[in-house]
Amino acid sequence: MFFDRPDSGELAVLVHLDISSGQEPEDPREFEELVLSAGGDPVTMVFGSRARPHAKYFVGTGKLQELQELVIEHEAQLVIFNHTLSPSQERNLEQALECRVLDRTGLILDIFAQRARTFEGKLQVELAQLRHMSTRLVRGWTHLERQKGGIGLRGPGETQLETDRRLLRGRISTIEKRLSKVRTQREQGRRARQRAAIPTVSLVGYTNAGKSTLFNRITGSDVFAEDQLFATLDPTMRRVEQDDIGAMILADTVGFISHLPHKLVEAFRATLEEAASSNLLLHVIDSAADERMHYIEQVDEVLDEIGASELPQIRVYNKVDLIGLEPRIDRNDTGSPVAVWLSAQSGAGCELLQQAISELLGEEIIQGELILSPADGRLRARLFEQNAIGGERYRDDGASVLTLRIPASDLLRILSAVDVQFDQLRWVEDVEPPQQLAENF
Q1: I need a surface site. Which of 14, 311, 336, 398 has the fewest CB within 10 A?
Q2: Which of 203, 200, 206, 242 is nearest to 223 (CA)?
Q3: How far is residue 356 from each of residues 180, 182, 244, 337, measured CA to CA in Å?
C-alpha cells in the first residue's frame, strides 16, 4: 500500500545539521526567520553534525529517533530541514516520522507562493513549484499496476504516476510559453525606454536589507515593506525625476538569499532580467547585519549568474542609525562614488544617494537662454514636451526667450528630429556646444 502524505500544519520541528563539506553552511537564525515568514510556529530546533548526509534519511538513525520523539512530544505536523533533500529522502522521512517533511527549497517556494500578487509572479512561482514537484512523484503511486506487455500481462493502460507526469509536463510547457510572452513584453518596454533615453536603476540586495523602504523613500510610493524575508516578490517600477538626469526608472526587485535554489533563479529569470538590463545597480546592504560580508558575496553570486556582475554598481549601506554612523559617500581613487551610507527608515543620507546617482548617470547639461523666432514653433513644442523649459518671455521683435535646462543627448535628439543644427541656435549669452560636437567647432 502506498503512503499517503499527511496534511501539513503550523507546528514545526526544525532541523539544522553542520555537514563537513566545502560549501558555506546555512545560517540557523535565517532559517528560523524563513519559517516564521512562511507562517510556521517553530517549537524546537534540532542541531547535529555529520561528515556526509545519510543516504536514506539525511540524518542518522539516532537523530531520526530523536525527531520521532519530538514530533510526538510537541504534536508537530511539520518537520523542516535547513538543507536540500532528495525526493527519496523526503519520502523516507515522511514514512518514518508520519508527518509532512519540507526542505529549504520547498520552504522558500511556499513563501513565494504566499507573496505572489501579480499574474506574472504567480506564473513564476507555479513554474518553480511544478519543477520541484516533478522530481517528487516517484513511488507516489506504487499501488497502481504498471503497464506490461504480453498475453495475460497487459495492464490497465496509463498508470496514475504516468498521468501525473504527463499533466505536469503539459502545465510546465503552458507556463513557459506564457512567461516567454511576458519576457517579450518586458523587452519591448526596455527598448522603448532606451529609445526615449530614460535610464533604469534597479535595487538589488539580500532579502530584508531594506530595498522596499528605500524605494518608497525615493519615489514617495507605498510599496509593501515589512521586517520579514521576501516581503517583496513582484517587481515594482516607478518613474522619478532626478537632478542632472531628468526622468529615470527605479525598479524594486525580489531579494536574494544564500544558496538561492537554481530552479527559482530560472523561474524568475524574466523578472531578474530587469536588473540585468539596468544602467545602474543599487546594491542595498544591511550595515547592521553580523553576516554582512557573507550576504554581499551571495548577492554577487546571483548577479554573476544572471549576467549583471559587470554593470555599474553603488553599494548602499542601509540602517546606519542602528550602528551609530553618520551618512557619507565613499569614493574610489578617481573620485567616483562607490558606496553610500544612509538610513532609508529616517531618510538620513538619501540626498547623498541621489547625488551619487546623478554623478554616475548624469551627463553634460545644456543650460542658458535660448532665442526662438515665431518660425521655430516645432522646436519650441518639442522642448516643452521634454519639460526642459523653466520660463519664457517675449521680446519686442516677437521672438521668445526660453530658459533652457536639458541633457545634451536629449537636445541633440530633438534638434535632429526638427532638422536644426546646434550652431544654428541663438543664445542670449554664448553656450558651449555638447562634448559630442565639440570637435566640430
Answers
A1: 398
A2: 203
A3: 36, 33, 11, 6
CA atoms within 13 A on the CB side of 126: 18
- Total Cβ atoms within 10 A of residue 222: 8
Grid coordinates in use for 356? 551619487
Report yes or no: 81 and 15 within 8 Å, Cβ to Cβ: yes
Give me the residue label for grid cell 517556494.
109
Cα–Cα distance list, 367 to 287, 342, 434 (Å): 39, 31, 11
What is the rounded CA–CA span in Å between residue 400 and residue 149? 91
Give the pairing of strands 246-252 and 236-242: antiparallel
Using an 8 Å Cβ cutoff, are 253 and 202 in contact? yes
Beta strand pairing call for 400-407 and 365-372: antiparallel
Q: Give the number of C-alpha atoms closer than 13 A to the C-alpha of residue 43, restricted to the C-beta side.
A: 16
Q: Which residue has the cell 523542516?
A: 80
Q: Tell me the one-letter amino acid at 32.
A: E
Are residues 70 and 14 in contact, defined by beta-carbon separation less than 8 angstroms?
Answer: no
Strands of 214-293 (E only): list them.
236-242, 246-252, 280-286
User: What are the C-alpha distances in Å from 70 to residues 66, 105, 300, 305?
Assistant: 6, 23, 39, 40
Is 37:228 a contact under the CB 8 Å cutoff?
A: yes
113 close to 129: Cβ distance less than 8 angstroms: yes
Distance in angstroms (rounded) separating the CA atoms of residues 49 and 415:
70
Q: How far apart are CA 109 and CA 418, in angstroms?
A: 53
Cβ neighbours, 10 Å, residue 64: 18
For residue range 312-327, what is the model confidence (pLDDT) as tens digits? Answer: 899 999 999 999 899 9
Cβ-Cβ contacts under 8 Å for 114 (sequence gap 6 or more)? 38, 39
Grid cell listed for 419: 532638422
pTM of this prediction exceeds 0.70: no
pLDDT tens by residue, 77-124 = 889 998 888 888 988 998 999 888 888 888 888 887 777 777 777 787
Tell me if 50 sits within 8 A of 59, measured CB to CB. Answer: yes
Residue with cell 525625476: 241
Query: Cβ atoms within 10 A of the Cβ of 430, count?
Result: 6
Beta strands in 32-188 (DSSP E): 41-50, 78-81, 100-102
Residues in Cβ contact with 279 at an 8 Å cutoff, skipping those fewer than 6 apart:
199, 200, 201, 311, 312, 361
